[in-house]
Write a structure and sequence with these properties.
Elements lengths: L4 E6 L15 H19 L2 E6 L5 H15 L4 E6 L10 H13 L2 E4 L8 H11 L3 E6 L5 H11 L3 E6 L8 E3 L2
Parallel strand pairs: 1-2, 1-5, 2-3, 3-4, 5-6
Antiparallel strand pairs: 6-7
């Protein structure tokens, strides 16, 4: 990889996580640790720009992991790719504050479109993939946005690293096309 490569992230929301919203669960802590290790490995491979779709759950874990990486590697940048301005409007207040704090810490905030419609999440996902060379993913095989994003990334020939939701402490495996 050449310097300044971009990696985006896709992963599940709390409804698909075995621990739901309970981030004190040891499996959640293990997953966050794995994300941090993978981010450090990506940094060593030349990745400096990271894009998060800013959804609840794994997207926010990833963004927080990038911000932690940036504290030891100031050349790291984080982009928050927001599907539409009201992304967090219906979230619980604490999650809205978390989302806003992460966006405020981002180097770049990209709003993909100005109004919500049923395709805005897919447009956000394509935006991220189209600007990346690698995708880091937390995926359990179920249908939904994460599967859509991974298929799109495969079609575009991106390097895909999968973290196993059932073995959150395990290293990522490279998805072979």
């Amino acid at each position: 990889m050449t310097a300044d490569c971009t990696c985006c992230f896709t992963g599940h929301r709390p409804s698909k996580l075995p621990w739901g919203v309970n981030e004190t669960d040891p499996r959640c802590a293990a997953l966050k640790g794995s994300i941090a290790r993978e981010l450090e490995g990506l940094y060593r491979r030349g990745f400096r720009h990271f894009i998060s779709g800013m959804a609840q759950g794994c997207d926010l874990y990833f963004a927080e992991g990038v911000l932690a990486l940036r504290s030891s590697h100031p050349d790291v940048t984080l982009e928050g790719a927001v599907p539409c301005p009201g992304q967090a409007d219906r979230w619980p207040e604490e999650e809205r504050r978390r989302w806003r704090a992460i966006l405020d810490a981002c180097d770049v905030e990209t709003v993909v479109q100005q109004r919500y419609d049923r395709f805005c999440m897919h447009r956000r996902d394509r935006y991220m993939v189209d600007r990346s060379q690698c995708v880091l993913a937390v995926f359990d095989g179920s249908p939904g946005g994460t599967r859509y994003t991974l298929h799109y990334a495969m079609d575009r020939g991106l390097d895909i690293l999968l973290l196993d939701l059932n073995r959150p402490q395990a290293p990522a495996v490279r998805l072979e096309l």
